[in-house]
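Complex record, two chains
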Amino acid sequence: MKTNSPFAPRNRDLLIIDTGPIRELILFHAVYDLGFQSLRPQLRPYFDRRAYKQLSRFLGLFRERTTSASVVAELYRWIQGLPDPSGHQQLWERIYQEFRNMGLNEEVVRLIDMPISIVAEHGPVDASLLELARRHLSRNPAILTVDSWLARECGRAGVASGFQLIEVCHRNSS
Amino acid sequence: MATSGAGKSARNSKRVEAWLISVINPVIDSLRREADLLADGNLSWRYFSKKCEYIRPVRSYIEGNFRPNFEDFLTENPQFKKKFEEHDRALSKIEGAASEFAAALLHDPLFKLRVEEALKDYAVEATYARYDSEPRPPGLASMNPGMPETIAEFLINNVGSLPSYYVPYSFWERYREDFVKRFGPRENAKAGVLPRAVKKLQGISARLAGDVTRHRSNLCSKYDMAPVPIMPQGPVEELITRR
């Protein structure tokens, strides 16, 4: 097997990404590359340069990456909640850049297609990601999240493998 | 004479403390990052904005809530106004030169032909994996901006290996050397303006970092303060950690 080939195997077909990991990626660049020191406290303590590399490697194992349109709305709410509006444009530029770079697809899931019990308890974002996993069941999807409930629920519902960000950052480092 | 004072008290001035925390230290840190990027030839120039993402006008290195401190610093230390403007003009020249380089490249028939050839070649690889065990590399059709613009951006930013999750990772691994050799701004005599503009900013940026660092030392001596003041939970620190 040619491990050094630029066309080396990508292990899985589809990764569905929750808001949390995208937010960490954006925060990482905001703190380390844009110098937004005031955002440092929001960055998860384990998400340092090494963790960023592990996450990059993990993301690279998937041929395609997708998310739910609700995640974009959640990113908007997060940025709107930051008190310094002068940095919003730069954060959005970074989000655009990340979406471009990873070729992140966005899919719309209608509210009426989501189970009411999950929407009521965990919100429409988690529900939409599980629904996406159901849609793409034949592609052996995985969901990447910071949310332990969602990661567990993927397996329980039998729709995807659930990965938590912290687990990805630690697992790959060994 | 340009002042570096902050009022009558020559000890532990709160005003100087605020400059150190919210203006001087962020500027020094940002200029250090800038120096590293420039040394790598990574301008972080983006095709879609025609601007450098990580190298910015000095004022942008100060977080919005602290801009009044920045204005106050410049009022009391006017010698830095011209220095910051010189930096920003040099940056603007780089952005202009990068945009011109990209536009010229995108009109160059040889570049267009080479991109077309490489994309055709890649499309075959992307359609049929070489081995059954090898999933196909991702298609590039959905890239926005398209691949010619993306390649121009990579060349301007002297991009080496991309993170493996980037869509054009496989493409760039395969064709980077060829594109850099034939069309890279550092290899192309016609692109002299861009490398010159980069060199100029490098010089200005290094001088400015030295000037600001020296000024910080002078302020620290004059006001008997540490470069990074350690304070009990005061309003400034609270602002920084809570924002």
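Note: Confidence is low (pLDDT under 50) at residues 1-10 of chain A.
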